[in-house]
Amino acid sequence: MDENIIINILRKEMMPGLGVTEPASIALSSAKAYEVIGGEIKNIKIIADPGLFKNAFSC
Questions:
Q1: Domain count, the chain
Q2: Is residue 12 part of a domain?
Q3: Buried b (16+ CB within 10 A) or exposed e, 8-24
Q4: pLDDT tens sequence across 5-35
């Protein structure tokens, strides 16, 4: 694929992230895990640095 085509697609599709994105990243990862294993998830262990934890917990 031509580099200019890729750049044009990115310019159309990319948007700045606004707000707190950490909870969304945790939720998206959890949803993908559910999809991959094809069923019930009994628990999820998240290891986060203090900044991510603060931002995710504040939502």
A1: 1
A2: no
A3: eeeeeeeeeeeeeebee
A4: 888 888 888 877 777 777 788 888 889 888 8
